Amino acid sequence: MRRWLQRPKGSNWGDFGDDDRIGRLNLINAEKVLEGIREVKEGKTFCLSLPLDYPGGNALNINRNPPILRPLQRYGKVNFNCEMNQFDHEISDVMSDDLAILHLQYSTQWDAFAHVGTMFDLYKNGEEEAAYYNGFSARDSMIYPDCLEDTGLQNIKSQSTSSAIKLGIEHLAEHGLQGRAVMIDLAHHLGTERTNVGYEIIKDIIEKDQLKIGVGDILCLHTGYAEALLKMNKSPNIKVLNRTGAVLNGGDPKLLEWITDSGIAAIAADNYSVEEFPYSQRQSCCSALPLHQHCLFKLGIPLGELWYLSDLAKYLRTHHRSSFLLTAPPLRLTGAVGSPVTPIATV
User: Fold this and answer.
1) pLDDT at position 285, please?
2) Residue 245 pLDDT greater than 80, yes or no
3) Coil, helix or strand at residue 114
4) Average pLDDT over residues 56-84
5) pLDDT at 267 > cutoff 90
6) DSSP type of residue 67
7) What are the C-alpha distances in Å from 9 to residues 6, 12, 14, 190, 257?
8) Distance, CA of 336 to CA of 284 (rounded, Å)
9) What span, in angstroms and rounded, lies between the C-alpha atoms of 64 and 61?
10) 84 vs 69, 70, 74, 191, 271, CA distance in Å?
């Protein structure tokens, strides 16, 4: 039996196969990777990640906290700067080994398709249920605990308690996320004040900068938000950040249509959620994250957030360029709904 009898308006469910789990990354084929490689002129690289202990604290999201690093043990001793001669007098090595407790979407990240779904009538029977990209229902694709004791940081046990078993981030990692990327420098054209960006603004910037955006390209949006965040030195000022940097207007139907028609494979931004969140023009029936719903749920377009793009954007503009090779695989962490990432741009 097919998982769904109807798909959302404007979605591409089934277009890449009934069991597809990588969405528009299917468009990043060998030729697209070669296109990206042909963008490399100097071999210069840019790290597009914030330090993973940024933003600092949990002011941006009360549910997400900075990484915790702890040393392991070795034979009952602290295994950090551990002098091995205490175990064997003939050994001169000094060893260190550690672990991390990591909120996967705390800092620079990719969203997996299981990060955002919606209530949808899959079987045309008038009954809505939690559903995700390509018609995977929560019933068949999500494992999660009923008990709060098995969530968060309290009572951490040695086994996992949740898994996106169909749409985990590992599928994006297995395909690889490398190809031609194009920078849209919103900060250059709009400044770094908060601006709600719809299709007309995007169209105007594309025309002014003579950008060439093709099927399978990865779109990078520079707003200046991450640069401002970095200067706050892990003490984010939310009032200032809420006035900083452009955000996409996820409720603009022309913008959503352009995303669909352009054939872009992924979108990454240096702001908190790519789009305005929560969406200020939301009605009671609608999504608080309409762009996420359109990209993750309908089209299978991964979204990257809190990337650091300022240095790259300045370089590209100085050298009259807009495209580059992007290498940005997520962690191959089975069942995760998001992943930290350290993207590298090569120009």
Assistant:
1) 61
2) yes
3) helix
4) 96
5) yes
6) -
7) 9, 9, 13, 32, 11
8) 30
9) 6
10) 22, 19, 10, 55, 45
Residue in the block written with tokens 């996992």: 160
Phi, psi (degrees; rounded to nearest 5) at 220:
-115, 130
Cβ neighbors of 287 (< 8 A, separation 6 or more) are 118, 250, 279, 293
Which single residue is written with the structure tokens 């798909």?
7
The values of phi and psi at residue 290, to 5°, are -65, -30
Task: Encode pLDDT of 170-198 as tens digits.
Answer: 999 999 999 999 999 999 999 999 999 99
- Residue that the structure tokens 């359109």 belong to: 294
Q: And the tokens for 279?
A: 């969406």
Q: Give one DSSP letter per residue of 142-180, joined into a string.
A: EE--SSGGGSSSTT--SS---EETTT-THHHHHH--EEE
> Span 37-54, mean pLDDT?
99
Residue pair 285/279 in contact by the 8 Å Cβ criterion: no
Two tokens, residue 305: 């957030």
- For residues 297 and 8, the answer to whether their CB atoms sit within 8 Å is yes
CB 325 within 8 A of CB 39: yes
What is the Cα–Cα distance from 133 to 297, expressed in whole angstroms? 4
Looking up tokens 């490399």, which residue turns up?
Answer: 40
Q: pTM for this structure?
A: 0.96
Determine what percent of the chain is predicted with pLDDT higher than 70. 99
Residue 223 · residue 273 · CB < 8 Å: no
pLDDT tens by residue, 203-233: 999 999 999 999 999 999 999 999 999 999 9
